[in-house]
């Protein structure tokens, strides 16, 4: 009788455990995927705007390099000031270059998000 009671208890526990563990796990719910796609679109839009700004920065930096010396020559600005301005512009150019590198990394990251969301849909 003890043996039968133990077997019955083990059987009940086994059934309870089996019921507690879901048979299939969802990769992503119905709200997660659309929200992820929405964020992906937002990130892509912001990154595109950043790329456009970077392009404008690059044009202005090139313009600054040529226009400052010309203007300084016309109004006889101190050479030391011109050198400082051009040095500042070079530092600014390096920051803009870093922004361009960051934009490329963001593109790669957004592509990974897209790939993951696509895999979750399937």
TrEMBL record:
Keywords: Signal. Residues 1-20 form the signal peptide. The keyword Signal applies. It comes from the Eukaryota. This is 3944_t:CDS:1. It comes from Funneliformis mosseae. The lineage of its organism: Eukaryota, Fungi, Fungi incertae sedis, Mucoromycota, Glomeromycotina.
């Amino acid at each position: 009788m003890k043996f039968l009671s133990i077997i019955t208890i083990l059987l009940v526990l086994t059934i309870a455990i089996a019921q507690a563990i879901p048979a299939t796990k969802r990769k992503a719910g119905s709200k997660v995927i659309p929200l992820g796609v929405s964020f992906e679109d937002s990130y892509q839009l912001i990154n595109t705007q950043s790329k456009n700004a970077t392009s404008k920065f690059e044009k202005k930096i090139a313009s600054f390099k040529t226009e400052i010396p010309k203007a300084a020559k016309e109004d006889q600005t101190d050479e030391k000031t011109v050198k400082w301005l051009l040095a500042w512009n070079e530092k600014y150019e390096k920051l803009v270059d870093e922004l361009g590198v960051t934009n490329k990394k963001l593109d790669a990251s957004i592509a990974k998000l897209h790939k993951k969301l696509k895999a979750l849909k399937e």
